[in-house]
Amino acid sequence: MQTALAIRPLKSLALFLASLFALCLSAPSWAFQTRIVSIPSAAMHRAFDATVVLPDDYDARGSGSARYPVIYVLHGSGGSYADWTSNTRIGKLADHYHVMLVMPDGGHESWYIDSPFDSSSQYETYVGTEVVSYIDAHFRTLASRQTRAITGLSMGGFGALRIALDHPQAFGAAGSISGAVDPRNCEDEPGIDRVFGNPARHADFWTRNAIVEGAGSFEHAHIALTIDCGVDDSFVQSNRVLHDKLIALGVPHDYAERPGGHTWSYWSNAIRYQVLFFATSFKQNGWHPNAQQA
């Protein structure tokens, strides 16, 4: 009787350990870290939250000395710094490619420009200069244009390309997902005239900032460029116009149209291809994820 009583707990323990082992094997191995930081803006006299995703080996590799490339990912109109992590599994891409991901807050309708019509909306300076400086000062980044990229969706796609063109010393790669590359098609967007001005009285400002009109700026910018848009997206035609102009100018770039519309389903799929593109660009510039870079 005593022997039988002793065997039962051992069998139960063995079954428990086997179940626990199987559970560990089936659980996702992603161990990225997500942090919310407050980044001050001297240009706008306030601070904004941002999401920072660190790869799982950020605190392990090289006793905390390894440095990482950074990809800045911008949200769309009406969104916030939390959009990408709330609606996609973007964090696992930091683990897979050994990169940092930074998602700053760009306001609800800032279009990531320094607005001459609203002094409180200076988001190009904020994202293109102040956020980059803060991240480089507070995290172990590879602080060079060759290992820094920027992309975004919709309004954020416009902003990413605009900022990359205006800050070529900061970003060596840029992308746009479902980008509003011609804001003149968005005149009815609530609040857009607050930063762009009245479209009738300030048509030249709208035109000057439209990415489709400034395609020639990419000719000598030496930016690794990737653009994609869903075939059912209302912005697909303006993206095709930009693509055709870049081809005519001989500007190297990746361009893709995939099934889908202006939805998180499309964006969560598209970001995987863009991060792969950027990681490839970083490697072509000499970075290797297994190298210890100080």
TrEMBL record:
GO terms for molecular function: acyltransferase activity, transferring groups other than amino-acyl groups. InterPro entries: AB_hydrolase_fold, Esterase-like, Mycobacterial_A85_antigen. Residues 1-31 form the signal peptide. The keyword tRNA-binding does not apply. It comes from the Bacteria. Keywords: Signal. This is Esterase family protein. It holds the Pfam family Esterase.
